[in-house]
Amino acid sequence: MAVNLTSVLITGGAGFIGSNFVRFFLRRHGESEVINLDKLTYAGNLESLKDVEGNRHYHFYRGDISDGAFVRRLFNEWHFDAVVNFAAESHVDRSILGPQVFIDTNVRGTTTLLEAAREFGVEKFVQISTDEVYGSLGPTGKFTEATPYSPNSPYSASKTSADMLARAWWKTFGIPTVITRCSNNYGPYQFPEKFIPLMIINALQDKELPVYGDGKNVRDWIYVEDHCEAITAVLEKGVIGEVYNIGGGNEVENIELAKLILARLGKPESLLKFVADRPGHDRRYAMDSEKIERELGWKPKRSFEQGIEETIRWYVDNRKWWQRIVSGEYQKYYKLQYEERASWSNSKRG
Question: Could you give all domains of the chain from N- to C-terminal order, each with its CATH number?
Answer without folding.
Answer: 7-190+221-248+281-301+330-339 (3.40.50.720)
